[in-house]
Amino acid sequence: MSTRAALRYAKAILNLAEDNKSEDAVNADMQLIAATIAESQDLEVMLKSPIVKTSEKVNALEGIFGKQINSYSLGLIKLLGEKRRLDILALVSKSYQTIYNHSKSIKVAQVTTAVPLTKALESKVVDKIKELTGSATSIENIINPEIIGGFVLRIGDIQYDASVSRSLTLLERSFDNSQFISKN
């Protein structure tokens, strides 16, 4: 149920932002909001808590994002507060990004790395993907220490695995499949 509600709010804010030529700024806000909530377990718990008053949640969010985000994004926070739906704010921001990317024909590339990408490296990856695919791309960096090093790039149905863990797995398979001649 909350997924459908989040999608409705996301579509509404996108329509409002498009009417006012602010969809790019609101998209940047939605990225900031989603990332901030994902990075702060305390904020996520507070937004979902039935004990914390809605007014306190709105005040906390205004304190965190007030000066950084567009008035439409701030209006969304206040509206979600009025409707007592602040628990779906992260979902609304992710839904907004999804429909924004679809409306702008922007593909999302998932880059899995062992450590977070630096801004410089992220910019190089975006440029290379744009060069290879010919279309605009945004990057979602997924951190997975199990890949040890390198990266795994996924765009739609295409995946390129240049991770150290994959190389080690391939090496292990080649040893398993090879026949060793013993000298006795």
What does this protein structure show overall?
The protein is of the alpha+beta class. It has two domains: 2-103, Peroxidase, domain 1 (Orthogonal Bundle), CATH 1.10.520; 107-177, Protein Binding, DinI Protein, Chain A. It has eight helices and four strands. Strands 2-1-3-4 form a four-stranded mixed sheet. Strand 3 (150-155) and strand 4 (158-163) form a beta hairpin. The longest helix has 18 residues, at 2-19. It is elongated and about 70 Å long. It is found in: Cell membrane; Membrane. One of its GO terms (molecular function) is proton-transporting ATP synthase activity, rotational mechanism. Keywords: ATP synthesis, Cell membrane, CF(1), Hydrogen ion transport, Ion transport, Membrane, Transport.
Gist of the model:
This protein is an alpha+beta fold. The chain contains eight helices and four strands; from the N terminus they run ααααααβαβββα. It folds into two domains: 2-103, N-terminal domain of the delta subunit of the F1F0-ATP synthase (Peroxidase, domain 1), CATH 1.10.520; 107-177, Protein Binding, DinI Protein, Chain A (2-Layer Sandwich).
Largest sheet: 4 strands, mixed
Total helical segments: 8
Q: From N to C, what is the helix and strand string?
A: HHHHHHEHEEEH
Strand order of the largest sheet: 2-1-3-4
- The structural class is alpha+beta
Text of the CATH class of the largest domain: Mainly Alpha
The beta-strand count equals 4
| CATH fold descriptor of the largest domain | Peroxidase, domain 1
Oligomer status: single chain
Strand content: 5-15%
Helix content: 55-70%
The gross shape turns out to be elongated
